[in-house]
Design brief:
It is built from 15 helices and 17 strands. With 447 residues, it is of the alpha/beta class. The chain has 3 domains: 146 residues, Rossmann fold (3-Layer(aba) Sandwich); 69 residues; 197 residues, P-loop containing nucleotide triphosphate hydrolases (Rossmann fold, 3-Layer(aba) Sandwich). The strands form 3 sheets. A 6-stranded mixed sheet has the order 3-4-2-1-5-6. A 6-stranded parallel sheet has the order 14-13-15-16-12-17, sandwiched between helices. Helix 9 runs parallel beside helix 10, helix 10 packs across helix 11 and helix 13 crosses helix 14.
Length: 447
């Protein structure tokens, strides 16, 4: 690439908090870190959440490479890589003082970008501000700066995201008949002819002919298409094909990683929890957790009360799902008593996701709810900590994001589905039909 094509990327704080290794992803281009970004990172260095770890990791990385040149010409990041440089901004650029009243960290970052762009005016779009903050990007564009989102871990298209299942109409009737007779499995030969693509590990199928149909699953290890039976999980019965597929994956000990997506009311969390209880004897503990995204992104300290009273509102939906399962049984039913026993002995733990940090993940059935509010790096951190015998289940709706810097293409759940498709240890199912009530389904579709 010629020098005229080389760019200078200026990083916002939220990019570093999103991915502590971000400066390694700009190839031969230079990276500039405004000094105010380091000041902001200092405010995040204490705590146990991923953003706190990212702040500390990034600061340590800079400390390891820091020399006097990092404040001048910059320090090379490696062979055929660009340089990283820290810049000082003593006061706001005159343009910013004329437009904005407030002297804030965001405006200091914009000021740095304007100053660098003025030095490099001979190269169109040579200076690019990288930020997860839409408003900051809009401000930058208003000032004539080129601004982009951090897209390294962003998937190409949500419309093409793997659904985990396929409906095949007109499948040979004699092949369907074979799935109803021992050994209830057939070679996948016809899949290449009737399916839109070659079967990938753990993909589910609804095979239909004029007279009958069957639910099936592709077992890559055996290279066979196997029938999927409708089974219950701790008293919870599947109400449609997708829920049947979900329970099959959730109870399958050969699949340690499962993702489920779907709108509210499709039964994601309920199915995951019921399945965990159904196979509880195979695991040391059941963890049910979710990330904490405070209302309007305000800190939890804003809420009154102690830690428990602050966290209870975020955990209540998980307790509600457990109550639905318990309410199926009489108070003296052994299955109801078993749930109470699991809670008392802390064999079943419902907790905010940050509180899981530091715990051993050996032989754990670990359900992470609302996973669409996690970053790709957070998802990776959770999965890479899973020990032997642990099963991880991520559930969420990729269209209902509460995180201020994530969307349907950049959240960790979408990223996980996109990257894990086709892996033998992984299964995904997208639940489409709401099962709460006719009214809930109508509201979900129309409002």
């Amino acid at each position: 690439m010629s020098a005229s094509q080389k760019k200078t990327f200026i990083l916002d704080t939220n990019v570093i908090l999103h991915d502590s290794t971000c400066i390694q992803n700009f190839q031969e281009h230079d990276v500039v870190i405004p000094i105010v970004v380091l000041e902001e990172l200092d405010n995040f260095k204490r705590g146990n959440q991923i953003i706190n770890l990212n702040a500390r990791e990034f600061t340590r990385f800079l400390d390891n490479i820091t020399g006097s040149q990092i404040f001048k010409a910059g320090i090379p990041l490696g062979d055929k890589r660009g340089k990283v440089r820290i810049t000082m901004t003593r006061e706001l650029h005159p343009v910013l003082r004329a437009v904005f009243k407030e002297d804030s960290a965001d405006h200091r970052i914009l000021s740095t970008a304007l100053e660098i762009q003025e030095v490099q005016t001979s190269r169109r779009n040579a200076v690019v501000l990288i930020s997860k903050d839409v408003n900051l990007r809009m401000k930058a564009k208003a000032l004539g700066l080129h601004a982009e989102d951090y897209t390294t871990d962003r998937i190409a298209s949500v419309d093409e995201l793997y659904t985990g299942k396929e409906l095949i109409i007109g499948y040979p009737g004699d092949e369907i008949d074979k799935l109803y007779k021992p050994p209830y499995e057939i070679p996948p030969d016809n899949m290449k002819k009737y399916s839109t693509e070659a079967p990938v590990p753990n993909k589910y199928f609804i095979l239909k002919t004029e007279n009958h149909s069957v639910l099936a699953h592709y077992h890559a290890g055996k290279d066979l298409v196997q029938r999927v039976d409708k089974v219950h999980a701790y008293g919870v019965n599947p109400r449609n094909a997708e829920q049947t597929f979900a329970i099959h994956a959730l109870l399958n000990d050969e699949i340690p990683l499962v993702t489920m997506t779907g709108k509210a009311g499709t039964g994601k969390t309920l199915l995951a929890l019921a399945s965990a209880l159904e196979c509880k004897r195979s695991y040391r503990q059941i963890y049910l957790a979710r990330p904490i995204i405070p209302l309007s992104n305000r800190d939890l300290g804003f809420l009154p009360g102690d830690v428990k009273s602050k966290l209870d509102p975020y955990m209540q939906p998980l307790w509600d799902n457990l109550k639905v399962i318990q309410n199926q049984f009489d108070d003296k039913d052994k299955r109801n008593e078993k749930i109470k026993e699991l809670l008392e002995l802390e064999k079943l733990i419902i907790t905010p996701l940050p509180y899981i940090r530091g715990r051993s993940l050996q032989k754990i059935y670990f359900i992470i709810d609302e996973a669409q509010n996690l970053t790709p790096h957070e998802i990776k951190t959770i999965i890479t900590r899973a020990g032997e015998g642990t099963k991880l289940v991520f559930t969420g709706d990729i269209y209902q994001i509460d995180h201020p810097y994530l969307d349907s293409q950049s959240n960790g759940l979408s990223f996980l589905i996109d990257r894990m498709k086709g892996q033998p240890l992984y299964s995904h199912i997208n639940l489409e039909k709401g099962e709460r009530s006719e009214l809930a389904e109508l509201a979900s579709n129309l409002l």
